[in-house]
Each structure stands twice: as C-alpha cells, then as structure tokens.
Amino acid sequence: MIKLEDKYIEIGKITRYQGNKGEVRVMPSTDIPERFFELESVFLQKADEFYQLEIEYIRFHKQFVVIKFFGIDSIAEAEELKNSQVLIVESEKYLLPEDSYYVDDLIGCEVYLSDNNYLGKVIEVVDTSGTDIILVKGKAKEYMLPASREMIVEIDLEAEKIIYNPIPGLLEL
Fold this sequence. Notes:
single chain, Elongation Factor Tu (Ef-tu), domain 3
C-alpha cells in the first residue's frame, strides 16, 4: 500500500517508444539495471502528472531497458510517456555496500575542504562512465570535483556533510 508520505527515487527516464506494440525505451539511472526485472509496477512522473503502471514485461536492448506496460498498446500511447521519470518507492531501493552512496542522498550535502573551509552544496553528480563528477555550487562559482576515493575524506549522510581533500592545484578558491 502506497502512502502519500512515501518518498520516491528515480531509476530511469523514458526516452522514446520502442517498436510498434506500445513498448518504451528507458535510460536507466541506476547502476543495477537488472533490478527492473524484480519490479511488478513503477510510478511515472511527468510535469504535474504522477501515476502507477503495471509492467507486462521487460527486456534489454543495447544500454536501454525496454518496458511494456499493461494498457499501453500503441506507438501513440507509448509516445505520451516520453520524458517521464521512472520511480520506485524509496523503501524498495537496494542496500548498498559500505562506502557506496545513492546520488539522491548526496544532493544537498554541504562540502567542506579538509582544512574546514566551506566550499558549497552538492547540486548534481555526473556519471562519466569513469570517475563521477560532483558539481558543487559555491558562493561565487560552481566547482567540478572528481568523486575519487583518494580525495573524499568523509561522507556523513546524517550530518549531510562531505569532507574533500583535493590534489594541489585542482581548485581555485
């Protein structure tokens, strides 16, 4: 049973229709796209619209997850879902190994340098298919910080605080 106070997390975004049977192509935003196979339904959000759809079947095509929803049986119906966020209830997210974090949990964290100087707030984490980049909005400018284990001293999600120790010359303050 879904309650209004439930929180949701994005696991993908519908980019377009796939084929002519009402399937949609989803770009996963999870590092574990296989998790889609465990779902019976998902929530979709597009602008002010928010609703739940039951999954008929799922398959993979290249780097995309292809989903067929019950009741979506044509290209036109599938096209209406384009640009929808694919969401699950936060309580359904996987437990991660130690020192691994969900991007949503990092957004809004305050970033301090190891000398205790305040840098700014995390506004986005960019997946580069290599070392992710943490975008931090400071008072005067934005910073792009490599999410390298060698430079991240500590992440305290309860305090919403990240302590960062950049290599010399990385930051101009």
